[in-house]
Design a protein that fits this description.
240 residues, Jelly Rolls, 2 domains, 5-stranded antiparallel sheet, 10 helices, transcription, HTH araC/xylS-type domain-containing protein, HTH_AraC, Homeodomain-like_sf, DNA-binding
């Protein structure tokens, strides 16, 4: 998935698989996935969980979370669960009542919920060593920031001091996609955001800023990923 994902257990129990190890989560515990991380989680059959979840993304957000060490653990416990659940309820009500019509309000409530998580979350799993997978994970925000620039595989492999073959193999093992597929998702994610925020910009301007000088190729890639044209996406989610 091309965004962050937090699943929080409000009641019951469930399981999360991390590198073929199964961890059990109970009330007040959560799993935080970074963009492009493999996700596998499921409820207990004997005591089914009641979960609260939200997906989010934002410019510079991945750097912010990595600086605070949140990439070192997938599993967390929330010390002040009541305030976290209330912040989630506020976001849920806004999304249910107004969908995407008030993006500023949605962003404010999302950051408020994320702030609750950052302030009160304590890792459940041990800090991972700086292995090859972590090196790829730490490189992802840089690739995301520079996604609109021409993609040169040799340059990215060189940043880790490894061959292009090993870079692609390692990248796929961590993200389950190729480096170019990741760049494409990043470009389209930015394009989707700009289509809603920059209402006066033409599709051609959005395409070029997202790294696609050819509007027809941009439309083709957008249609493949979103099932609609950029213009249709803007009409559907752009509001009044």
């Amino acid at each position: 998935m091309n965004n962050f994902n937090i699943h929080y257990v409000a009641a019951g129990r469930g399981y999360v698989e991390v590198e073929d190890v199964v961890y059990e989560l109970g009330p007040g515990e959560a799993v935080l996935y970074f963009p492009m991380q493999r996700q596998r989680y499921y409820s207990s059959e004997e005591d089914p969980w009641d979960i609260r979840w939200f997906h989010f993304y934002g410019s510079g957000l991945q750097d912010y979370l990595i600086e605070r060490g949140l990439h070192h653990s997938l599993l967390w416990t929330i010390r002040q669960s009541a305030s976290f659940e209330q912040a989630h309820e506020n976001l849920l009500l806004e999304a249910e009542e107004h969908r995407m019509l008030h993006p500023v309000r949605l962003s404010t409530l999302t950051y408020a919920l994320l702030a609750e998580f950052i302030e009160h979350a304590t890792p459940l799993s041990p800090v991972k060593s700086n292995n090859s997978g972590s090196r790829i994970l730490e490189l992802l925000p840089v690739m995301q920031q520079e996604a609109v620039k021409p993609f040169i595989l040799e340059d990215w492999a060189g940043r880790l001091g490894i061959s292009t073959y090993y870079f692609c193999k390692l990248f796929r093992s961590v993200t389950e996609m190729t480096p170019m597929e990741f760049i494409t998702r990043c470009r389209l994610q930015m394009a989707k955001q700009w289509l809603l925020e920059r209402k006066s910009a033409t599709i051609g301007q959005i395409a070029e800023d997202a790294g696609y000088p050819s509007v027809s190729y941009f439309n083709k890639r957008f249609m493949e990923h979103e099932g609609m044209t950029p213009s249709a996406y803007r009409r559907l989610y752009g509001g009044a």
